[in-house]
Design brief:
By secondary structure, the protein is of the alpha/beta class. It has 24 helices and 22 strands.
Length: 698
C-alpha cells in the first residue's frame, strides 16, 4: 500500500496537470510529502496591517487593506493593469503584467481588499507588483490562525497563479486529508526521551502554528528528524563497509617505522600528530578495512603522518600509495618523501600522466613484482595496467577532487581492499565534516609544528602601492623572497592574464635588473617553462615570483616569507588561506599582504577582515561556511548536504552532535534495525531508498 505522503500532487482536486508539472520543475514538488516539506520561510502576523503612508521599506512582505478606487490598462512596451488602492492615509498603485482581464474583472471598484506582497520603490513612489489579493469579507471568513505561512515561489509559478497563498491552500487541503495518516518515523523511545512532537503534529504546526511556542517545538522536531536520519544513514554505511570489507591486519610496528622514527624524523611530532598516528594504527590492526579522513591545516604535517602509516604497511609486508589531484602536488609529495627516506633502503617511485613510456614499463614491472615500496602519483595510478603485488594502504590527497568511483578503483587494486586514508588540506568545520564525511572516521591535526611563527596578515588598498613596494624592497634586502599572486578565473581569463602581465611589467620597472631577478608563472606556459621558473625561485636565483594560483599547491620555499595577493577581493576564503600557506614554512617571520580595490563590498570586507583576524584554518572554514553555505565549500556540492530543508549545520551544531551520538549508539546495538522498537526507522529507510532489504542501504 502506498504511503499517504507518497501520493502524487496531482491527486489534489485543485491542482491541474499543468500546475503539477510546474511545481515539479520549479521547486521539485511531486508528492504530498514534498509539499509538506516545502516549509515556510517566514510567517505573517494576520492581525497586523500596514497603513499606506507607513510603507517605508522594500525589505519585507506586508498586508495593506484599502478600497479599489480606480483601474486602467496602460499601453507602452507591453500592456499593464494599474489598480489604485486607497485607505485613510493615502493611495498606492497595484501593477499587474499577466492575466490582465481576469484580474481586472476580479477587482470591483468601491470594494475593500486585503493586499499582500513586497512593496517596490519606483519613480519616487512605492507600489505593489503582482501582489496577492482578496476581498476583506473573504479574508475575514478564511482567516484561521494568527500566523500565516509565507512560501518561496518563482516568477513562473506566480505567472501560473501558484502563489504563496495558493501553496498555503494546497498544504491546508493535504493536512485536512492527513488525519491519522502520517506514519511516525521515530520510535516512541526517542520521541518520549527528547520530548518531541509527533511527526503529524510537527507538520501541522510548522505550516499553521497556533502560537510561537508551538512553532518552535515543530521546528525542533523536524530539525531533529532531518539531522538524525542523515547521521543514521552514515552509521549504516560505516557498518556495511565494515561488514563487507574485511581488512588486512597490520600487527607489526617494525624496522622501517622504528628506524625512521628514531634516526630520520626531521622534527619532533606534535601531540596532535602523535594522537592521529595512534588512531590510524589502531584502525589498521582491527581486521576491518580502514576508511579514515585526515584533516589538517596548511603546514600541519599531514604528509609526515601519512608516511609513518605507510611505513607500518611496509613493515607488515605490504606496498603503499599516495594519489594526488595534480602533477605538481604529486611531485611535491614525491620530493618530500624521497628526502625523508634518503637514508633508508626503500624504493619510492613517481607515476603521472607525464611519465615517459620508456620509464613507465620498468616501473610497472617492478611494482607488480613488489620491488616498489611506495608509489606516488596522479589519476594515472588508477589505470588498469597499474598492478600492485600487494597494496595495503592507499592515501588519497584532497578528497573532494576524487569521486566515489575513483576511490572504488583504488579498492580494486587488491583482492582484499587496502586500508584507505583520505587527506584534505582544506580545513572543514566540524559540523560539515560530520555531514559530508559522516561515513568515515575522522582524525584532526589541530596544531602546527613548534617554532612556527604566525603569519602576519595585512590589508592594503590599490592606493597603497608605494607602501607595498617599499616593504618588498626591505624584505629582499634582508635576503627574503616574495610571491605576488594574481587571480586567474576561467570566465575572465583574458582580462586576468592582462592584469598579471600589467602587474609583472610594473614590478619589473620598480625592481629592475641586474639588482633584482623576477620569475613569472601562469597556466598558459609550457610545463617545462613553468618548472624552470619554479626551480629558479626555489634555488634563490629570483627574488620575486609573479604568478597565478598555479602556485596554490606547489613547491615549498622556506625562504619565501612574503605573499602578496593582488585583487584579493576576488578570491574565496579557502583559496586565500591556501595561498597564504605558501609562506611561513621556515623560521623567519612571514607576511601576507591582501591588496584590494579601494571600494569593497560588505562580503569582500568580511573576507579580508577574517583573514587578517586569524590564521586558524578551521575558524576560516567556519566563516566560509556561514558566508557561502555548505554546498560551495570543499567540493561538497555532491555530498547531499544541500538536501537539508529546515536544519542548519552551522546554527544547529549542538543538535547535530546529539543526533550523531544517538545514531551511533543505535547502530552499534542493532546494526540492521531488527529490534521491534526500531521498526519505524527500518520502515522509513526502506521506503526512502525504495528497498525492503535494509542491509543493502548504502
Amino acid at each position: 500500500m502506498m504511503d499517504f505522503l507518497d501520493t502524487p500532487i496531482e491527486h489534489l482536486s485543485s491542482i491541474s496537470e499543468k500546475k503539477a508539472n510546474i511545481l515539479k520543475k520549479e521547486i521539485n514538488v511531486s508528492t504530498f510529502g514534498d509539499l509538506l516539506e516545502h516549509y515556510p520561510f517566514r510567517y505573517l502576523d494576520k492581525s497586523k496591517f500596514t497603513k499606506i503612508r507607513e510603507i517605508a521599506s522594500e525589505e519585507t512582505y506586508i498586508q495593506v487593506v484599502g478600497k479599489a478606487i480606480k483601474k486602467e490598462i496602460l499601453k507602452g512596451k507591453g500592456q499593464r493593469l494599474v489598480i489604485t488602492l486607497a485607505d485613510s492615509t493615502g493611495t498606492i498603485e497595484l501593477v499587474f503584467f499577466q492575466g490582465l482581464k481576469w484580474i481586472s474583472d476580479s477587482f470591483v471598484l468601491g470594494i475593500d481588499y486585503v493586499i499582500f506582497g513586497k512593496p517596490t520603490f519606483f519613480n519616487g513612489l512605492f507600489n505593489f507588483a503582482h501582489p496577492e489579493f482578496e476581498t476583506l469579507t473573504s479574508y475575514k471568513r478564511t482567516a484561521i490562525d494568527t500566523f500565516f505561512p509565507i512560501y518561496s515561489t518563482t516568477e513562473r509559478m506566480k505567472n501560473s497563479f501558484l502563489t504563496s497563498k495558493a501553496l498555503a491552500k494546497y498544504t491546508q487541503e493535504i493536512l485536512s486529508l492527513a488525519v491519522n495518516r502520517i506514519e511516525e518515523n521515530l520510535p516512541q523511545y526517542i520521541t518520549k526521551h527528547y520530548n518531541l512532537y509527533t511527526r503529524e503534529r510537527a507538520l501541522r504546526e510548522i505550516h499553521f502554528p497556533k502560537n510561537e511556542e508551538n512553532l518552535a517545538k515543530a521546528k525542533i522536531r523536524l530539525k531533529f528528524e532531518e539531522l538524525f536520519f542523515m547521521q543514521l544513514e552514515n552509521q549504516v554505511k560505516k557498518y556495511n563497509n565494515k561488514s563487507a570489507n574485511k581488512g588486512f591486519v597490520f600487527s607489526v610496528v617494525g624496522d622501517s617505522f622504528n628506524n625512521f622514527y628514531k634516526n630520520n624524523l626531521p622534527f619532533t611530532l606534535t601531540n596532535a600528530q602523535q594522537r592521529v598516528v595512534k588512531e590510524i594504527r589502531n584502525d589498521m590492526r582491527t581486521g576491518f578495512q580502514m576508511n579514515r579522513l585526515l584533516q589538517g591545516d596548511v603546514g600541519s604535517g599531514k604528509t609526515l603522518v601519512a608516511l609513518l602509516c605507510m611505513l607500518i604497511a611496509i613493515d607488515n609486508g605490504f606496498q603503499a600509495s599516495i594519489i594526488a589531484p595534480t602533477e605538481i602536488l604529486a611531485q611535491q609529495h614525491y620530493n618530500s618523501i624521497k628526502n625523508f627516506l634518503k637514508e633508508m633502503p626503500l624504493n619510492v617511485c613517481l607515476l603521472t600522466g607525464s611519465s615517459k613510456q620508456k620509464e613507465r614499463k620498468p616501473l610497472l614491472n617492478a611494482l607488480a613484482e613488489g620491488q616498489v615500496n611506495i608509489l606516488i602519483g596522479t589519476h594515472a595510478i588508477l589505470e588498469d595496467n597499474v598492478v600492485f603485488k600487494n597494496l595495503g594502504l592507499a592515501v588519497i590527497d584532497e578528497q573532494h577532487r576524487f569521486g566515489v568511483e575513483q576511490r572504488a578503483k583504488m579498492w580494486s587494486k587488491n583482492t582484499t581492499p587496502p586500508h584507505v586514508l583520505v587527506m584534505t588540506a582544506t580545513p572543514i568545520p566540524r559540523t560539515l565534516a560530520m555531514s559530508v564525511y559522516g561515513d568515515l572516521e575522522c582524525s584532526v591535526i589541530d596544531e602546527l609544528p613548534k617554532g612556527r611563527k604566525p603569519i602576519q596578515t595585512t590589508h592594503l588598498f590599490d592606493r597603497d602601492i608605494l607602501t607595498l613596494f617599499n616593504f618588498m624592497r626591505k624584505q629582499i634586502d634582508l635576503g627574503r623572497q616574495i610571491y605576488v599572486v594574481y587571480p586567474l578565473i576561467k570566465e575572465s581569463e583574458k582580462m586576468d592574464l592582462k592584469d598579471l602581465m600589467d602587474g609583472y611589467e610594473s614590478i619589473v620597472r620598480e625592481f629592475p635588473l641586474p639588482k633584482y631577478q623576477i620569475s613569472i608563472v601562469h597556466g598558459q606556459m609550457k610545463a617545462e617553462d613553468k618548472d624552470y621558473e619554479m626551480q629558479r625561485f626555489k634555488e634563490g636565483i629570483t627574488n620575486i615570483m609573479v604568478a597565478t594560483t598555479v602556485i596554490e599547491v606547489g613547491v615549498d620555499v622556506p625562504n619565501a616569507t612574503v605573499m602578496v595577493i593582488e585583487n584579493a577581493e576576488r578570491f574565496g576564503l579557502a583559496q586565500l588561506h591556501q595561498l597564504r600557506g605558501r609562506v611561513g614554512r621556515g623560521q623567519e617571520q612571514s607576511y601576507c599582504i591582501l591588496r584590494t580595490k579601494d571600494e569593497l563590498s560588505q562580503e569582500g570586507l568580511f573576507r579580508i577582515n577574517t583573514m587578517c583576524a586569524t590564521n586558524n584554518g578551521f575558524e576560516i572554514a567556519q566563516a566560509d561556511l556561514q558566508l557561502r553555505g555548505p554546498g560551495n565549500i570543499a567540493g561538497t556540492q555532491q555530498s547531499g548536504v544541500m538536501e537539508l530543508k529546515i536544519a542548519d549545520i552551522v546554527l544547529d551544531e549542538p543538535l547535530m552532535v546529539q543526533v550523531k551520538d544517538l545514531a551511533t549508539q543505535i547502530i552499534s546495538h542493532d546494526p540492521l534495525l531488527k529490534a521491534e522498537e526500531n521498526k519505524p526507522l527500518r520502515n522509513y529507510l526502506a521506503r526512502k531508498h525504495k528497498t525492503a532489504d535494509f542491509s543493502q542501504i548504502s
